[in-house]
Amino acid sequence: MKLRQLKFLLAIAESGTLTAAAESLFVSQSALSQQIKSLEEELGSPLF
């Protein structure tokens, strides 16, 4: 688990949408999705 992944997760939770979180973090939506997918695989559970 990386600090960046937790930052991304928090941004999604606060903004309510992947698109808004990606915009606020200045990353693409696909990059954000990939990081969340990686975190979900590491934890063995879906986060959303």
What's the structural blueprint in terms of helices and strands?
Elements: H1 3-15, H2 18-25, H3 29-43
Helix pairs in contact: 1-2, 2-3
What does this structure look like?
This protein has 48 residues and is mainly α. It has one domain. 75% of the residues lie in helices and 0% in strands.
What would a concise description of this structure say?
With 48 residues, the protein is mainly alpha-helical. It has 3 helices and no strands.
Q: What number of structural domains do the residues give? A: 1
Structural class by SSE content: mainly alpha
What is the H/E string?
HHH
| First-last Cα distance | 17 Å
| Backbone CA Rg | 10 Å
Largest sheet: none
Q: How many H/I helices?
A: 3
Task: Please provide the count of β strands.
Answer: 0
Helix content: over 70%
Estimate the global geometry from the Cα principal axes.
globular
Beta-strand residue fraction: under 5%
- Average pLDDT, to the nearest integer? 96
Low-confidence stretches: none
Key phrases:
single chain, 48 residues, mainly alpha
